[in-house]
Amino acid sequence: MSATLLEAIAEVPDRWWTAHAKCKGRTQLFFAPAGERPEARTRRESLARRYCAVCPVQAPCQAEARRNHEAGLWGGENEEERAEAGFAPRAITRRSVQVAVTERAKRSSAAS
Question: Is residue 74 within 8 Å of 55, Cβ to Cβ?
Fold first, then answer.
């Protein structure tokens, strides 16, 4: 990589990718409303994942969510999937996320 390109990359804000995200303006699809039923969540996340599947910035979006332990669906990954990968959200509000964290801990201790 040239020095000029590296300098240009260094000057780009960390969230440059948000300007190119397919989900822009559709946050209601990516974050659960209070009291959402499991069936409604499945439908909402299915639609959200369709946006992620064709999004040119899926990878940096997913990395941002993992780095910041975000809630919601980011980069095609929901809280449970991030928890299983070792990036649980800071506030675990759903039982399914707690189960994912517990299962990952069991696998890690069994591997040791």
Answer: no
